[in-house]
Amino acid sequence: MKIIWHGHSCFEITGKDGTIIFDPYQANSVPGLNPLKLKANLVLCSHEHEDHNARNCVETTAKDFKVTCIETYHDHHQGSRRGKNTIHIVEFEDMKIVHMGDIGCMMDDVSKLKNCDVLMIPIGGYYTIDTKEALKYIERIQPRIVIPMHYRSHEFGYDVLSTNEEFIQKSSNIVYVDDYLEVHKETKGQTIVFKKPRN
């Protein structure tokens, strides 16, 4: 399985099972990122904010996948400020992939997420959980591979978000990759930091 990061919370996973896009962003919705033009068999959007719902930017050829959805909140106030958020759990290439979307709260029950092969989790704060909360989730979920998302860099992202620097400092087994990662059942546990988005 290949995981491609297109920036922000947008990931493409592709392999013999097909291709899935998570949380594509609308053109001009994320400062510093170019418009998307992608192809996939399925598009999964965690919620309907413009930086996560650009289904129109993905040409789709439908194919069935096993997807489990968990409804959560986009804030710490039962969704009263930013609405709901959907976590997507996908079975892909005999692995369990979890995309946390724009989760902004701490869940009591993480049993469906535990021991996943890949966890994509926001760390930037303000709109979502921050690094401190993300690390608590990681400790509880025990994923094999962690990929932080929804943060700011010097080239892109919202000014109100934190960078990934604190997360890197407090994480272990950091592996830097360019804009994509190949994952197999034998891939060892690691925390992935993409050097740049494919954009």
TrEMBL record:
- rRNA-binding is among the record's keywords: no
- Where would you find the membrane-spanning parts of this chain? none
GO terms for molecular function, please?
Answer: hydrolase activity
Please verify whether the record's keywords include Hydrolase: yes
- Note one Pfam family from the annotation: Lactamase_B_3
For this UniProt record, the keywords arranged alphabetically read as follows: Hydrolase
* Protein name as it appears in the record: MBL fold metallo-hydrolase
